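Deliverable D4.2, example record:
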Amino acid sequence: MIHNDVLRSVRYMLDISDNKVVELIKLSGLEVSKEDVLTYLKKDEEEGFVNCPDLVMAHFLDGLVFFKRGKDESRPAQPIETPVTNNVILKKLRVAFELKEDDMHAVLKAAEFPVSKPELSALFRKVGHNNYRPCGDQLLRNFLKGLTLRVRG
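Output generated by the structure prediction step:
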């Protein structure tokens, strides 16, 4: 899934402004302008559309975690993870919204996209692990849909 779609989905889910998106990215230490964010939020067929880079998406997701859960000043900052894959996006959203395994299943079930426990746990394994499974666009899209239903009601 392209990062722009994830950015638009999370923005809609939380009902946040463009300025708030800029603030979330700043929370994790990256300066971006509102104009840059507006180009990332455009649909791909719109004039002025720009692909959201991995670095911006990584900072946005980390900023979202800080926004939702708070920043632990006693611990050193985690390094920014790039490239940002669907699996990384899923992990960061899980952390930001404090979702347990049962919550994850409920979110996917709400989107009418049930996934078995082994399938779900395989998405959170390290790359190279025997049971690792890459997260597909369809699963991530349905997860975002289900999470939006959960958050917005």
